[in-house]
Amino acid sequence: MFASVSNGTVRQPPASGRALTMKTLCRERGLSQIAFSRSVLPVLVACGLLLALGGCNGGPKPPPLAVVTGRVTLDGKPLPKGVVVFHPDRFKGTTGPTGAGEIDQNGRYLIRTAGRNGALVGWHVITVEAFDNTIEGNPSIVSRKYRRPDMSILKSEVKAGIENVIDLPLVSNP
Question: Which CATH code fits 65-170?
Fold first, then answer.
């Protein structure tokens, strides 16, 4: 049994080991069960409803995404490895998490954002990064005009409700 606290004093449950019931509590406090039900019960119900309804929202709504795929080429040939990143363009009103996708051996990519397929709906600055692992130092094989968000010349709008196919034809010297 647990002890109860009332007016700053700790009271032990009855020595008989009987559990404190609503009837016992009401008798001790000089209340009828009806008065107790009318005064305390509505408060308990209201608290329960608030707790239940507070959990119904499930937290913040994830941002709207749209599927984005495409093909990356360098000087007309598929780029066989690398990463494509879609950076929301805040200057055009798009804010939120970036999306990224790995480039496969055929130059194809699929963007994923926050663990889901797609990129934020809106405008993006796109960057591409790929390294040559066969050369010491692993130099980048794409121009910095494609690698850095502040310099990238790749920009595109992701539209809601459609599969956005955004091909990225890169050249060695843009």
Answer: 2.60.40
